[in-house]
Amino acid sequence: DTEVTQTPKHLVMGMTNKKSLKCEQHMGHRAMYWYKQKAKKPPELMFVYSYEKLSINESVPSRFSPECPNSSLLNLHLHALQPEDSALYLCASSRGGGTKNTEAFFGQGTRLTVV
Amino acid sequence: AQTVTQSQPEMSVQEAETVTLSCTYDTSESNYYLFWYKQPPSRQMILVIRQEAYKQQNATENRFSVNFQKAAKSFSLKISDSQLGDTAMYFCAFMIPPSNSGYALNFGKGTSLLVTP
Fold it and tell me: CA of B34 to nearest chain A CA: how many angstroms apart?
């Protein structure tokens, strides 16, 4: 199983809503990532979890709250978002732990629209 | 800070022809990894090829090969025998191995490749 599964695939939410994005992998990877991608732009790193601990937060606003309940799951909780937060949110995982196997596997993303 | 530059926003190639996508990067690190990722309209980011900076031999993966020039900080991707399914956005990416914080990728702006019949 070399898949990273993200749900939902599409999400429309109002600015007062609370929603969550979910990411799951069963490859035994110990590093998981959230990236944000605007149309026709490269992905931008948001958060990195390594061994279920938050190791990188790229100055992301607090309306985005990541959570890593276990080594297979990564959530991104959303609250009071703005229309400019509309984007494709990509989850990725890699072996981590200082190994030479550095390949990151990406999910298909969640297309988020904030109205 | 590390930067990755892809100077070709868009490229087009005919089926069965060869095309080369360029990428340059800037870093003061000596140990790093370089990647080409492909993102088709389906949005899935797919690894095409990987190069370790300490390896002098250029990486190859079937129809895909790289020309890695470490001194020039250049990392171009050659696609041979182009196929319609190669139509996608191609991102060059850079990674410095961390201590414990995972492997975060730094992407270039991308090159949109169109393969025509």
Answer: 10
Q: Which residues of B touch A49 (CB under 8 A)?
A: 102
Q: Between the CA of residue A1 and those of A25, A105, B61, what are the distances in Å?
A: 9, 11, 21
Question: For strand B64-69 and strand B74-79, is the pairing parallel, antiparallel, or unpaired?
Answer: antiparallel
Beta strands A87-94 and A31-37: pairing type? Answer: antiparallel
pLDDT of residue B21: 98
Q: How far apart are CA A115 and CA A100, in angstroms?
A: 43
User: Do residues B102 and A48 touch, judged by C-beta distance below 8 A?
Assistant: yes
pLDDT tens digits, one per residue of B18-72: 999 999 999 888 888 999 999 998 888 999 999 999 888 999 999 999 999 999 9
Residue A34 confidence class, pLDDT cut points 50, 70, 90: very high
pLDDT at residue A56 in the model:
79
Answer yes or no: are the C-beta atoms of B116 and B13 closer than 8 Å. yes
Inter-chain touch B45–A106, beta carbons under 8 Å: yes
Instruction: Map residue B86 onto helix, strand or coil.
Output: helix
Alpha-carbon gap: A57 to the closest alpha carbon of chain B (Å): 11
* Angle at the Cα of A34 from the Cα atoms of A49 and A80, rounded to 5 degrees: 110
Residue B107's pLDDT is 94
Chain A residues within 8 A (CB-CB) of chain B?
A: 31-33, 40-43, 45, 48-51, 55-56, 88, 90, 92, 94, 96-98, 100, 102-109, 111
State the count of interchain CB pairs (< 8 A) between A and B.
68
